[in-house]
Amino acid sequence: RKEVEQDPGPFNVPEGATVAFNCTYSNSASQSFFWYRQDCRKEPKLLMSVYSSGNEDGRFTAQLNRASQYISLLIRDSKLSDSATYLCAIYSGTYKYIFGTGTRLKVLA
Amino acid sequence: GAVVSQHPSWVICKSGTSVKIECRSLDFQATTMFWYRQFPKQSLMLMATSNEGSKATYEQGVEKDKFLINHASLTLSTLTVTSAHPEDSSFYICSAREEGGAYEQYFGPGTRLTVT
Known about the structure:
The structure holds two protein chains of two kinds.
Chain A: E1 4-6, E2 11-14, E3 19-25, E4 32-38, E5 44-50, E6 55-57, E7 60-65, E8 70-75, E9 84-91, E10 97-99, E11 103-108
Parallel strand pairs in A: 2-11
Antiparallel strand pairs in A: 1-3, 3-8, 4-5, 4-9, 6-7, 7-8, 9-10, 9-11
Chain B: E1 4-7, E2 10-13, E3 19-25, E4 32-38, E5 45-51, E6 57-58, E7 67-73, E8 76-81, E9 90-97, E10 105-107, E11 111-115
Parallel strand pairs in B: 2-11
Antiparallel strand pairs in B: 1-3, 3-8, 4-5, 4-9, 5-6, 7-8, 9-10, 9-11
């Protein structure tokens, strides 16, 4: 089993839709969790950290489910500019981050 | 927010030559920097973890003699691709974790290497 798994997509959604991605991880000792956004041929940019209590930033909500070992990202009212690849990253306290393969999102007009 | 720069942003070189890529944390100190490689439509692959003042830790399958890493200061790490070959053509991205900060890491803009 991979350490971090994501559905590669693509998820094609109309503008205004709500879309959610999950990312599962295998190491129960994982400490910190992040969502990054990567545009084509660009570097990943930190979107948000994922806290145990869940966190929200505008249209974006991230949640952590330790029991089932996954994190989620919810995007409400999708915009065309949200089209990108969304990467989850897990930090397990060994100075190493494990990235998922990313989920491609296409928001359609 | 934390800013990481990378230089050059793209480079084309001939097979057999060496290429040095610089990664700098501009507004924070980074004890640890990371070097990744990404092939088209694939995920980030961690190559090595660069620690200031000590040897880098390489991931399995990454040749340390081919990919030389030097982390000479708290704001600079370099990756040198030695004797580059066409199969080394890739997008190389560095990231840095702020000293004493939370566990977020911040990425440089990447270097696109093409070996002809």
